[in-house]
Design a protein that fits this description.
- The structure is a homodimer.
- By secondary structure, chain A is an alpha/beta fold.
- In chain A, 39% of the residues lie in helices and 21% in strands.
- Chain A starts with a strand and ends with a strand.
- In chain A, 57% of the residues are buried.
- The model of chain A has no long low-confidence stretch (mean pLDDT 96).
- Bound molecules: calcium ion (CA) (3 copies).
- The site of one calcium ion has 8 residues of chain A, from helix 6.
- The site of one calcium ion (CA) has 7 residues of chain B, from loops.
- Chains A, B: Its EC number is 3.1.3.71.
- Chains A, B: Its cofactor is Mg(2+).
């Protein structure tokens, strides 16, 4: 099995098989939490405006502006909040820039797109191997075109699980991610050093960092299942 | 001093200050070797055709097609060969795709562009600090849009030297490069695992890999000094 890690989304990338999209702080962590809380489906959209277009009494809007809940939204993008949110049986519309962009790019060519984080790392790696025939790719969302230490670290944890479960041929990106993983035995240390974590601290959301640093706590793996307008629809994989 | 590492060239990148361009297997290693051998200037061009346009009795053409010397060229891109080449006082035109592309991109906005490798790592880091006022950036050339373990490893070695000489604020990319460096105490091991090294082995040029893995053997640092047509002109920094 080929194991490939792309450290940033790039328009020219082509995925023949399975892609694990990683935006660990916080979109893909929060996505697993909404499924844990019983959400029926997640609609990932690239902007607050796109989310508002889905506003309806049966729909929960989640998003952030500068890390915080935007006006007219039901929830922010905090995974702690998502885990406790009353979303049972509902559609959650998540407005999230980098994660949606990466998932959209992966979905243009891949057979299967999964959302992965540290929180669901083991389940996501297992599900990827279940679906893959030739390649598992991990696509790091990064932040506005800059590579994210948090996402590359998470890719390293996923790569490690994949390598334990199956013989893999890592590409250069996978070797880089594995090295980053090995340099930081403590996930919280790695995540805390990232620019994404610094941005959360800046808006008083630092409690989300240790939450996102929890490894393999959830078996929920969002799987791309369709599209409606600008939204990518994810359901339980 | 800000310390920034970009793991791949991207058109939208803007450099306010100094950039160290890294294409360790083999362009930036070979560039330092040509200066060691006494070359007056290096012209980096993006294609064999662009190089041929400079053909003249006082000019040495160096390039590769599938790793080997192209017809009509005086030399290949091997650093071992460059070190012994009779280029004293001459202009060497180097055709090299990924390195030239990265240097061209850096040169669009940066104040100073230097060519760095393991071979000149210490001198390149020192020169960068000498020239910089706010930021030292390291731009990894990669290979046709894919990140290279060899270049990111070299960025880590440069970042380590920079951090020893000056207090630096590393970005996420720099932290990733430093982690890759720390995961591989032996430079030859890191370089040997890269896709670039595998490609060299495929054409019987594996002896260049240990050469490129030598650290801090040269004080020659090519500095971008001008342009002529498609060529970027580098001279001793
Ligand atoms: Ca993020
Ligand atoms: Ca990130
Ligand atoms: Ca190269």
């Amino acid at each position: 099995m080929r194991l490939r890690v792309d450290l940033l989304p790039r328009e020219e990338l082509v995925y023949p098989d399975v892609v694990l999209v990683v935006d660990v702080i916080r979109a893909t962590t929060t996505a697993a939490c909404f499924l844990e809380a019983g959400a029926e489906a997640l609609y990932l959209v690239p902007s607050l405006e796109a989310a508002r277009a889905f506003k309806d009494e049966d729909v929960v809007l989640a998003g952030e502006a500068g890390g915080l809940r935007p006006s007219g939204f039901d929830l922010g993008n905090s995974p702690r909040e998502a885990l406790e949110a009353p979303v049972g049986g509902k559609v959650v519309v998540m407005a999230t820039t980098n994660g949606t962009k990466a998932a959209h790019l992966a979905g243009m060519t891949a057979k299967h797109v999964l959302l992965a984080s540290l929180f669901n790392a083991h389940a996501a790696a297992r599900k990827a191997l279940e679906l893959a025939t030739e390649e598992v790719a991990i696509l790091c969302a990064g932040k506005e075109g800059r590579v994210g230490l948090d996402d590359v670290y998470t890719a390293g944890v996923l790569a490690e699980y994949l390598g334990l479960m199956r013989e893999v041929e890592p590409d250069d990106g996978a070797r880089i991610a594995l090295a980053v993983r090995r340099a930081h035995p403590d996930p919280l240390e790695a995540l805390s050093l990232s620019a994404a974590a610094l941005a959360l601290k800046g808006v008083g959301l630092e409690a989300d960092i240790p939450f996102c640093a929890q490894v393999a706590k959830s078996a929920q793996v969002p799987l791309l299942s369709g599209r409606v307008g600008e939204a990518l629809i994810f359901k339980r994989g």
